[in-house]
Fold:
Amino acid sequence: MERFFLLVLSCLCVSRVTADSLSPPVNVTIKAVKANSAVVTWDIPEGDPVIGFAITQQKKDVRMLRFIQEVNTTTRSCALWDLEEETDYIVHVQSISMSGTSPLSEPLRFRTPKEAETQASKSKDEVTMEEVGQTTQLRAGELIIIVVVLIMWAGVIALFCRQYDIIKDNEPNNNKDKAKNSSECSTPEHPTGGLLRSKV
Structure:
């Protein structure tokens, strides 16, 4: 009985030592801070048997927390969403192993800017990949429209030239037909000398 008790106690101690030996994440930083979102990044000490991470997000001077848990991942970053502009936040990161979680990382404080400041901070020379894609799409669309218009104009001009050639080719025939029609419509000669022959 004593041996069983000692075995259970030693297993608990080993588990406790393993969990306590798991170091908290280091180099916790905030990037891409916007009015309503941000990205938290971190590193882990080499050799820690980490299977995931837990991120705690809290408004300053507010007890309510948001807990984000990422398991079975090698990612060293997490997006924070649905933030409020001009608000102070505190973020902690913990490592997760099979035996438990690490202590909390050092608290990281940051403040979200105003939406207007976020827009103004974007430099005129700074072009995001999304804007590049939109510009490329616009240019491709404009090019297609120009090509279609040119083809339509070419078709209209070709049709006009064809009709003009047909009309021009038919003009002498029309004159001959008119002359023929006018001669056919003239008074036919009467076998006895015609209608206009004097009876004298």
Notes: The chain has three helices and eight strands. The radius of gyration is 45 Å. The helical segments are 2-21, 115-121, 129-185.
